[in-house]
Specification:
globular; 19% strand; single chain
């Protein structure tokens, strides 16, 4: 897929119906030879729309007008390129806990959670957030995570978590304003509700910080998993992470995680983590697949806002 094609795909599928601003901007970039040439100077993994748009926003650039975006990006390319080379799209959307909850609550309790690609660890607190599935409410407190669930076994209570840890190449710190600013810059322009949710989830994490370890998802996973308490069910999970991992390492990770004790929950693009015998997706928007121990269970929306169960 060319860089131009990737921007068309992003605008047509991933942000369709969710961010008109990014939809228009992605299409404009796909036709902008100046910007495509600049992006071509970066490694392929660093050319993605979310990364470019997030860095421009972090540096104070405009994203609501394609011409202004072009001018700012061209004029400030050295600074933008430098940020893109050292950053990754570490979107830490606590709302994704809403699609993980039915799978987590069905496992033997209590749980020891280990998130791969944890960013700042905000998805390590499914036991601390409140949930709203239509007229069903689970738990109390803030933030409240809304999810339109179809056919899902909505649990009566939140899971019990006795240990939580995250593994990331560049873990972020929710008590560091600069790290929170990057998480904020990755939220799409229209999503003010997600900005409020980020602040509320960050407050939860800051009050009881998780164990976050800098490391590789293959080389360093076994040692971290071994630190989980033996009297809890180990759950290794990840959501919208594997697309950033080269295919050979992705395959090595899958082989490794299948052999670890406990359970494995994946919430990933099926083009990145394929499954056999999937039903047709509910629509032509972007969907991940929620899977438990390699068995697909549900279609999920990217930020946890929707869940269609088929498992």
């Amino acid at each position: 897929m060319t860089t131009a094609d990737a921007y068309v795909e992003f605008g047509a599928r991933e942000v369709r119906g969710l961010s008109p601003t990014y939809g228009r901007l992605a299409l404009a970039v796909s036709r902008d030879r100046d910007l495509l040439d600049l992006l071509g100077t970066l490694p392929p993994a660093k050319r993605q729309p979310n990364l470019l748009f997030g860095v421009v926003r972090l540096l104070g650039g405009p994203v609501d007008d394609a011409a202004a975006f072009h001018d700012f990006t061209v004029a400030n390319w050295p600074a933008i390129a430098a940020e893109m080379r050292v950053r990754a799209t570490q979107t830490n959307e606590a709302g994704r806990c809403a699609v993980l909850l039915p799978a987590l609550a069905a496992l033997p309790q209590p749980l020891a959670l280990l998130e791969v690609g944890a960013s700042a660890g905000l998805c390590l607190y499914p036991d601390r957030y409140a949930y709203r599935y239509g007229d069903r409410r689970v738990g109390a407190g803030e933030p409240v995570l809304d999810c339109a669930a179809t056919g899902a076994p909505v649990p009566a209570a939140r899971p019990e978590v006795v240990w939580r840890a995250g593994l990331d190449l560049n873990p972020l710190d929710v008590t560091d304003p600069a790290d929170v600013a990057w998480l904020d810059a990755l939220i799409w322009p229209e999503h003010t509700h997600r900005r409020a949710r980020l602040r509320a989830a960050a407050a939860v994490a800051a009050a009881d910080p998780p164990l976050l370890v800098r490391g590789d998802l293959v080389d360093d996973l076994p040692a971290l998993a071994a630190r989980a308490p033996a009297d809890a069910t180990l759950v290794v999970f990840h959501t919208s992470v594997l697309y950033q991992v080269p295919t050979p390492r992705r395959e090595a990770f899958v082989d490794l995680v299948r052999d670890l004790p406990g359970h494995w929950i994946a919430n990933e693009d099926p083009a990145v983590l394929p499954h056999q015998g999937l039903p047709d997706p509910p629509g032509d928007a972007f969907y991940n697949v929620l899977a438990l121990d390699g068995r697909p269970l549900a279609w999920t929306r990217g930020h946890g806002q929707g869940l269609v169960w088929f498992g």
